[in-house]
Design a protein that fits this description.
Layout (H helix, E strand, L loop, with lengths): L3 E2 L3 E2 L4 E4 L5 E5 L2 E7 L15 E7 L5 E7 L21 E5 L3 E6 L2 E6 L6 E5 L2 E6 L4 E5 L5 E8 L6 E5 L10 E5 L14 E7 L3 E5 L5 E5 L6 E7 L2 E8 L3 H12 L12 E4 L8 H13 L6 E4 L22 H10 L3 E6 L2 E2 L4 H9 L21 E2 L5 H17 L3 E4 L18 H24 L30 H15 L9 E2 L8 H11 L5 E3 L13 H16 L1 H14 L4 E2 L1 H4 L13 E3 L3 E3 L8 E6 L11 E3 L5 E2 L3 E6 L7 E3 L10 H11 L4 H10 L6
Parallel strand pairs: 22-23, 22-29, 23-24, 24-27, 28-29
Antiparallel strand pairs: 1-2, 3-13, 4-5, 5-6, 6-7, 7-21, 8-9, 9-10, 10-11, 11-12, 13-14, 14-20, 15-17, 16-19, 17-18, 18-21, 19-20, 25-26, 30-31, 31-32, 32-37, 33-36, 34-35, 34-37
Helix pairs in contact: 5-6, 8-9, 9-13
Length: about 700
């Protein structure tokens, strides 16, 4: 929210009141409660009348995290959803006071609150200042419609960079951007996002988490160029400053509070193949695709059935279209016999034509309007309703649909949508505030689906392919990047988004290889295949076009085979890195700035990344096959040592940018000096293929020669 007119004035129709200073305080157990008058310090008893006061509560849910709650009017919050947080009941804090300040310490993080004539909140981690809020940094703004907004601000230092706030397709560094935390189904080429996380990460080694699932607005050097502003339409706002010795350490502390990604089974890191979105398919098509991949020596881990496994206009009915799939149990059994898992597309919407609609309507399982009728509209599915996950009986009903599918042989689910959740004329079963539920809905939706798989398969084999997210849904992996175009700019914006997502506490991430919206060129298909199979999770998917490689030329088949097998060879390394993600919250796909925080050259890089701690990946985004990439210094005992391309053996000295051409079988994939990269051999992969009845590399090449690619 922007409300200022330059530095001194307020825009017409707005009114601003700022916390002036700390007038008085009290201690409530481990909580420090401060009282700040608006606009000017209280000089005498008469000034305590008619002016209002901001209540500031300081607490600590966990070590190295200090939470501030700004309260104007103390309203009943029992009807509002809140993020589940892992508070530590044994956390110890120290509260001190002298003539000049209050000190509130949690672990190595200390908040100094000045007692002068202006607000002064200074955060130190291990004795070093990492964040500061000063003059006019806390207050209330009334907008032209008379609505109250609570705001806070943090100073933005010289060379300070802000990252994160979810999967954002805009510039990787958020300085100069307005970021609105509001889930939307807006594609990948705007400032809208499917996955909005009210958390940012600063290279000054702190994170800021606004603990509200509602519409939080960040102004990163756009309202005041030397500050980050965060605001919320409400009478109160709670935010936590998370300290650490590095940005990685901050993520570790933040995910200790909000949750971490679980460990995943090895098979999840392999290649997933989708039918694509609106493409026509049946049992014959599925078997042709699966057998076509395996016979060409391209091992599949999972096959995904998108929307049209169900009848049109009935999404979701959770029933196979019997005309296309007369024997789903037999088909799924055949996939399992070939070592391939099965995933099906679902969402939380029930079209009016679905046989489930009447049952859900009669039993009150859907979100309702204020007049008691089911909330419906015609976007997406005709007359569709939305499952109300605040109703425990609706949750169990929804889970039962999934249990039936798992009984048939389905292994996992793609939880699509969850962003277009209404806020007007809406009533939830438990009375939840509809505005707060808009973003939070995805947490309840994905949690319900994840729990079914966890119940049946155990945590390691519980895996979603989710599009929407909010804070905490990193506990229900994995997430993919949404509806991107089949272009190089879209490929680059997808990577930017994935890196931002990783800076927001999410450990795993995927994207639609070769793009979703269009038919890719042969060139883009091959380049995106390289990128996709060097991401934490990998899936071919599209909208109107099938994405099997033999439709994109003979070389596409070779590239797909080579990089799928390369990823399988890397599984021991990937699982070791996933363990780090599970234990620390540091993502598998890491921005260069996260891994090499002390190298200024890495601060803005968003066209390459680290896959774990030891592999540098620089996807190629140009038709001329040229890659421009930077090689940092590994530091420590290996400072100054060269990196080596895993695919070509070529060495690269650190501290330099390189511009180089690569064919479709190579790209910059550099091994960090000193790394002990655990990999399987080509022979190991061939043995795995033989055990599953899949063609070996040589057999796959021979089959491909006998069945040349067809361009369509």
């Amino acid at each position: 929210m922007k409300f200022l007119n330059g530095e001194w004035l307020v825009e017409d129709g707005f009114e601003a009141k700022y916390a002036a200073n700390i007038y008085t305080s009290r201690r409530e157990g481990d909580k420090l409660v401060l009282f700040a008058p608006f606009n000017s310090p209280i000089r005498n008893a008469g000034m305590t009348l008619d002016g209002g006061i901001l209540t500031i509560e300081v607490s600590s849910p966990r070590e190295n995290i200090i939470t501030t709650r700004l309260v104007n009017f103390a309203l009943d919050r029992s009807h509002e959803p809140t993020f589940p947080l892992n508070a530590d009941p044994d956390n110890k804090v120290v509260i001190e006071e002298d003539d000049n300040e209050y000190r509130y310490r949690s672990g190595k993080l200390t908040l100094h609150v000045g007692k002068g004539d202006v607000i002064d909140f200074s955060y130190e981690y291990d004795g070093k200042r990492i964040a500061h809020s000063g003059f006019r940094s806390m207050g209330l703004v009334t907008d032209p419609e008379g609505k109250t907004h609570v705001l806070g601000q943090m100073d933005l230092g010289v060379d300070e960079k802000i990252y994160g706030m979810g999967e954002r397709f805009t510039n990787f560094v958020k300085n100069g951007q307005q970021v609105i935390i509001w889930n939307r189904d807006g594609g990948t080429d705007s400032d809208q996002s499917y996955k909005n996380i009210p958390f940012y990460l600063s290279n000054r080694n702190y994170g800021l988490f606004v603990q509200d699932p509602g519409r939080v607005e960040f102004e990163v050097a756009t309202e005041r160029v030397s500050r980050v502003q965060f605001s919320l339409e409400d009478q109160e706002m709670t935010y936590s400053v998370v300290g650490g010795s590095s940005m990685k350490d901050v993520l570790t502390n933040y995910t200790a509070l909000t949750g971490r990604a679980p460990l995943l089974a090895d098979w999840t890191f392999g290649l997933w193949l989708s039918t694509s979105f609106t493409t026509d398919y049946n049992e014959k098509t599925v078997l042709e695709f699966v057998d076509g991949m395996l016979d060409r020596g391209i091992p599949l881990s999972c096959f995904h059935f998108d929307c049209r496994w169900m009848k049109e206009l009935e999404w979701c009915n959770f029933q196979w279209d019997e005309d296309k799939f007369p024997d789903p149990e037999g088909l799924l059994r055949h996939l399992h016999e070939r070592g391939v898992k099965a995933c099906v597309w679902i969402n939380s919407y029930i079209g009016q034509k679905s046989p489930l609609f009447k049952e859900g309507q009669e039993k009150g399982y859907f979100i309702k309007r204020t007049n008691g009728q089911v909330w419906q509209w015609d976007r997406w599915q005709a007359g569709m309703a939305i499952v109300d996950f605040t109703n425990p009986q609706a949750v169990e009903w929804y889970k039962n649909q999934l249990r039936h599918l798992m009984d048939q042989g389905v292994d996992c689910f793609k939880t699509d949508f969850g962003e277009r959740i209404p806020t007007e004329d809406v009533v939830y079963y438990d009375g939840s505030d509809p505005v707060k539920m808009h973003n939070y809905y995805t947490y309840l939706y994905n949690k319900a689906v994840y729990e079914v798989m966890q119940e049946r398969n155990g945590s390691e084999n519980a895996i979603l392919f989710a599009r929407s997210a909010t804070a905490g849904t990193q506990k229900f992996p994995i997430h993919w990047g949404g509806d991107c175009h089949s272009t190089y700019p879209a490929m680059a914006e997808s990577l930017r988004a994935g890196l931002s997502f990783g800076m927001s506490g999410f450990g795993y991430w995927s994207h639609d290889i070769a793009g979703f919206e269009d038919k890719p060129t042969h060139d883009i298909y091959k380049r995106w295949t390289q990128f996709g199979l060097l991401s934490s999770h990998s899936r071919y998917h599209g909208s109107t076009a099938y994405k099997v490689p033999w439709l994109f030329g003979d070389e596409a088949v070779e590239v797909s085979r080579e990089f799928t097998r390369l990823k399988l060879r890397l599984v021991p390394y990937l699982t070791s890195q996933a363990k780090i993600t599970h234990e620390t919250g540091v993502p598998m796909m890491r921005a260069m700035a996260l891994e090499f925080q002390d190298d200024p050259a890495c601060e803005d890089i968003d066209t390459q990344y680290m896959l774990g701690s030891d592999l540098l990946v620089a996807p190629i985004f140009r038709e001329d096959s040229v890659a421009r990439f930077y090689v940092p210094d590994a530091g420590g005992d290996h400072a100054g040592q060269a990196w080596t391309n895993l695919l070509t053996g070529k060495s690269y000295e650190p501290g330099h940018w390189y511009t180089e051409s690569f064919d479709y079988h190579t790209l910059p994939l550099l091994v960090r000096p000193g790394a002990e990269l655990t990999m399987l051999s080509e022979e190991d992969i061939d043995e795995q293929c033989k055990a599953r009845g899949i063609a070996t590399a040589e057999e796959g090449r021979r089959y491909a020669e006998q069945h040349p690619a067809v361009d369509y």
